[in-house]
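Title: Prediction job returns without error message
Component: structure pipeline
Severity: low
Priority: P3
Assignee: unassigned

Description:
Job completed but the reporter wants confirmation the result is attached to the right record. Sequence as submitted:
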Amino acid sequence: MSLLTDFSLDSLGGVALILLASFAPAPLLGRWIHYLYEHKAPDALERKLAPVLGWHRPQPWRLYCRELMLVNVLGALVLFAMLITQRYLALNPNHIGNMTWDLAFNTAISFVSNTNWQAYNGEDSLSYLSQMLGLGVQNFLSAASGMAVAVAFYRGLTRHDGQMGNVLRDLYRGVVYLLLPLSALMAIVLLATGVVQNFHPTLMATTLEGAQQAIPGGPAASQIAIKQLGTNGGGFFGVNSAYPFENPTLLSNLFESIAILLLPAGFVFAFGRYARDARQSLSLFIVMLVVLLAGLGALLYSEHQSVSALAGLDVSHNAHWEGKESRFGIDLSATWAALTSAASNGSVNAMHDSLSALGGLIPLVNILLGEVIFGGVGTGMYGMLLFVLLTVFLAGLMVGRTPAYLGKTIEVREVQWTLVALLTMPFGVLVLAAITALITDPHTLVTNTGAHGLTEWLYAYASATGNNGSAFAGFAANTPSQNILLGIAMLLGRYIPIIAVLAIAGSLATKAPRAGAEMDLPTHSPLFVVLLLVALVLLGALSFLPVLALGPVADALS
């Protein structure tokens, strides 16, 4: 521990270590992902279940999509039923009551869609059974669903037999051979660093001042592991990874930060294995890394600027310390904010609402870009590939050549579905947020007025539609209208892109590489990297620049 501390684990040295440890295993992890989905021999359970569930039969995209949706719908119904009846179920030593139907609806949609938006405190609102069997199971299944869609998209881009694979087999392998082993290892590491794992009821302690303080416990370590690795982000406790029982030390913060990017980065390199061209992965990795580092640099710079209100006071540090976790410092708190919003994770170790105005702009922009800067496990890659298809199409128009990607022609059908997916984010954020303003009094929803209040509002709907789950605070989310509208935003943001991606994959999977493909625009060249960066930034700017100008930008200027 002393060596790590000497390395400045709580400062920029820790930031560098997090990035290095997150990305170094990615090529090897990508090789394993490709192997387990495509080449690993069936285990004994697979061989027994395959004839019963039809795992041995490949599926066209419509059947693949239908069965995936069925699994998700059943998961949502089971979780909803558990939440509204938890007071009658086992493992409830704190005798927590049932959730209201609207909050249960919101929570069920949230965890099935890998959003993990929480309009409640976990220690006050959920029994241990609901945490483990309810939310925990969906943490695995929602992550596995995103991975399955990404793998199906890879197959559609690189095959020409019209088959997507088998969704139940893909879900099984993603959970059993990727998420479970890594989560078990991560849980052991977290236990060693001091994260709690017990079934004790809340303890009451007497403080030095003589007051009574409630000290919650619970099986946290096992849930924190999958929340980070599966880019879920839902905290076992209300204040998430700012809570000492959930993230007690610099070492636990290091491992939890690394886990955010580990699998998303692995899926980038897995794509190169499917395409049989590592350069395809490398070009996408460079684009993601450039955007990530640009945002992280801007966030660190902004949070280290002097606070004008503290000017002239006798203080040792006058940077933006408000809302930061003092155990980790500005650098690691800001780094977590950048990583969690880039990777669709949504967990926090500091208060985003207390970031500087321009600092708060960075995680918001990360989400509004569709969280394709590594993104969620699987979801980030298929989101980025949608931008790739759009960039290829625009480049083809500019040079007067039929657009193609990996030798396959990009035609009207693929472009239409791509636009449907990419327009989901603006619709969920701008339209649903506007509907909220029409049906409720805005002053009852946000605790701040003016530009900062608008930022809180905008962040909530961006987080829901982007399936991120983090919040700016100051937004009254737990009302019937907001639980329903935010639930709708989560549904749209998750499942419209999934349907669009599978439809594109199904269309491309029937196409053979066209003649003259060697003359197509190289999608691994520096020129294409620049074009993709421009397309990524322009789409986000054109969609959200006006509302960003009225929100965080105006907040900074004021």
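Comment from assignee: result matches the submitted record. The first strand starts at residue 203 and ends at 206.
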